[in-house]
Specification:
It contains four helices and seven strands. Strand 6 and strand 7 form a beta hairpin. The longest helix has 11 residues. A seven-stranded mixed beta sheet has the order 1-7-6-5-4-2-3. With 133 residues, the protein is of the alpha/beta class. The chain has one domain: Rossmann fold (3-Layer(aba) Sandwich). 26% of the residues lie in helices and 28% in strands.
Length: 133
Protein backbone atom coordinates (compact mmCIF):
# COMPACT_ATOMS: atom_id res chain seq x y z
CA UNK A 1 0.00 0.00 0.00
CA UNK A 2 1.38 3.38 -0.99
CA UNK A 3 -0.15 6.81 -0.40
CA UNK A 4 0.22 9.96 -2.43
CA UNK A 5 -1.50 13.22 -3.20
CA UNK A 6 -1.01 14.07 -6.89
CA UNK A 7 -1.85 11.11 -9.09
CA UNK A 8 -0.76 12.34 -12.52
CA UNK A 9 2.17 14.31 -11.14
CA UNK A 10 3.50 11.36 -9.19
CA UNK A 11 3.20 9.13 -12.22
CA UNK A 12 4.77 11.45 -14.77
CA UNK A 13 7.03 13.98 -12.99
CA UNK A 14 10.71 13.27 -13.45
CA UNK A 15 10.06 10.17 -15.53
CA UNK A 16 9.28 9.30 -19.11
CA UNK A 17 5.92 7.77 -18.13
CA UNK A 18 3.03 8.21 -20.49
CA UNK A 19 -0.43 7.65 -18.99
CA UNK A 20 -3.33 6.28 -21.03
CA UNK A 21 -6.72 6.72 -19.36
CA UNK A 22 -9.42 4.33 -20.57
CA UNK A 23 -12.94 5.65 -20.01
CA UNK A 24 -16.51 5.04 -21.18
CA UNK A 25 -17.02 6.46 -24.66
CA UNK A 26 -19.57 8.91 -23.24
CA UNK A 27 -16.97 10.31 -20.84
CA UNK A 28 -14.17 11.14 -23.27
CA UNK A 29 -13.03 14.73 -22.62
CA UNK A 30 -13.75 17.00 -25.54
CA UNK A 31 -13.26 20.50 -24.20
CA UNK A 32 -10.23 20.22 -21.92
CA UNK A 33 -6.68 19.37 -22.96
CA UNK A 34 -5.13 16.72 -20.70
CA UNK A 35 -1.82 17.30 -18.93
CA UNK A 36 1.36 16.53 -20.90
CA UNK A 37 1.97 12.80 -21.08
CA UNK A 38 -1.70 11.91 -20.47
CA UNK A 39 -3.94 10.49 -23.20
CA UNK A 40 -7.59 9.40 -23.18
CA UNK A 41 -9.33 6.64 -25.10
CA UNK A 42 -12.48 4.56 -24.90
CA UNK A 43 -12.36 0.82 -24.25
CA UNK A 44 -13.53 0.09 -27.81
CA UNK A 45 -10.87 2.36 -29.34
CA UNK A 46 -7.99 0.85 -27.34
CA UNK A 47 -5.63 -0.98 -29.69
CA UNK A 48 -2.08 -2.21 -29.63
CA UNK A 49 -1.24 0.48 -32.17
CA UNK A 50 -2.59 3.16 -29.80
CA UNK A 51 -0.47 1.79 -26.95
CA UNK A 52 2.60 2.03 -29.17
CA UNK A 53 1.74 5.46 -30.57
CA UNK A 54 1.20 6.99 -27.11
CA UNK A 55 4.12 5.13 -25.55
CA UNK A 56 1.85 4.33 -22.61
CA UNK A 57 3.67 2.87 -19.64
CA UNK A 58 0.69 3.30 -17.31
CA UNK A 59 -2.96 2.55 -18.04
CA UNK A 60 -5.68 3.93 -15.74
CA UNK A 61 -9.36 3.08 -15.70
CA UNK A 62 -12.30 2.98 -13.35
CA UNK A 63 -12.70 -0.25 -11.44
CA UNK A 64 -15.90 -0.86 -13.39
CA UNK A 65 -18.04 1.10 -15.84
CA UNK A 66 -21.20 0.54 -17.87
CA UNK A 67 -18.99 -0.59 -20.78
CA UNK A 68 -16.18 -2.63 -19.15
CA UNK A 69 -14.60 -3.71 -15.89
CA UNK A 70 -11.06 -4.48 -14.73
CA UNK A 71 -11.18 -8.09 -15.93
CA UNK A 72 -12.24 -6.96 -19.43
CA UNK A 73 -9.47 -4.37 -19.66
CA UNK A 74 -6.84 -6.60 -18.06
CA UNK A 75 -7.63 -9.24 -20.66
CA UNK A 76 -7.40 -6.78 -23.52
CA UNK A 77 -4.09 -5.39 -22.24
CA UNK A 78 -2.68 -8.89 -21.78
CA UNK A 79 -3.66 -9.90 -25.31
CA UNK A 80 -1.89 -6.79 -26.61
CA UNK A 81 1.27 -7.71 -24.71
CA UNK A 82 1.15 -4.60 -22.50
CA UNK A 83 4.13 -4.66 -20.11
CA UNK A 84 3.50 -1.45 -18.18
CA UNK A 85 1.42 -0.75 -15.08
CA UNK A 86 -2.39 -1.02 -15.04
CA UNK A 87 -4.12 0.83 -12.21
CA UNK A 88 -7.87 0.78 -11.59
CA UNK A 89 -9.32 3.77 -9.76
CA UNK A 90 -12.20 3.78 -7.28
CA UNK A 91 -13.47 6.05 -4.55
CA UNK A 92 -14.05 3.09 -2.32
CA UNK A 93 -14.39 -0.65 -2.42
CA UNK A 94 -14.30 -3.14 0.45
CA UNK A 95 -11.28 -5.47 0.48
CA UNK A 96 -9.51 -4.17 -2.64
CA UNK A 97 -6.75 -6.75 -2.15
CA UNK A 98 -9.20 -9.50 -3.11
CA UNK A 99 -9.94 -7.85 -6.45
CA UNK A 100 -6.23 -7.39 -7.12
CA UNK A 101 -5.63 -11.04 -6.24
CA UNK A 102 -8.41 -12.18 -8.62
CA UNK A 103 -7.05 -10.12 -11.52
CA UNK A 104 -3.50 -11.33 -10.90
CA UNK A 105 -4.67 -14.95 -10.74
CA UNK A 106 -6.21 -14.66 -14.23
CA UNK A 107 -3.48 -12.37 -15.66
CA UNK A 108 -0.34 -13.14 -13.61
CA UNK A 109 2.06 -11.18 -15.83
CA UNK A 110 0.09 -7.93 -15.62
CA UNK A 111 1.30 -5.33 -13.09
CA UNK A 112 -2.12 -4.50 -11.63
CA UNK A 113 -3.15 -2.55 -8.53
CA UNK A 114 -6.10 -0.51 -7.30
CA UNK A 115 -5.94 3.19 -6.45
CA UNK A 116 -8.51 4.27 -3.86
CA UNK A 117 -9.28 7.98 -3.67
CA UNK A 118 -10.65 10.05 -0.83
CA UNK A 119 -11.39 13.75 -0.55
CA UNK A 120 -12.22 16.33 -3.20
CA UNK A 121 -10.33 18.80 -5.36
CA UNK A 122 -6.89 19.71 -4.08
CA UNK A 123 -7.63 17.74 -0.89
CA UNK A 124 -7.80 14.44 -2.80
CA UNK A 125 -5.46 11.71 -1.63
CA UNK A 126 -5.00 8.18 -2.94
CA UNK A 127 -3.80 4.86 -1.63
CA UNK A 128 -2.42 2.15 -3.92
CA UNK A 129 -3.42 -1.41 -2.99
CA UNK A 130 -1.83 -4.63 -4.07
CA UNK A 131 -2.89 -8.17 -3.15
CA UNK A 132 -0.91 -8.12 0.10
CA UNK A 133 -3.58 -5.95 1.77
Amino acid sequence: MKAGDDLFGSMTTGTSSQVLVVVCSSRLPVETAPPDGVFFTSFDDLTGELLLRTGATIVLSALWTDEFDVIDLAGKLSLMGFTGRYRAVSSGVPRPGLIVSDVRRVYPFLDFRILLFSGKGRQTTWVEYDDQV
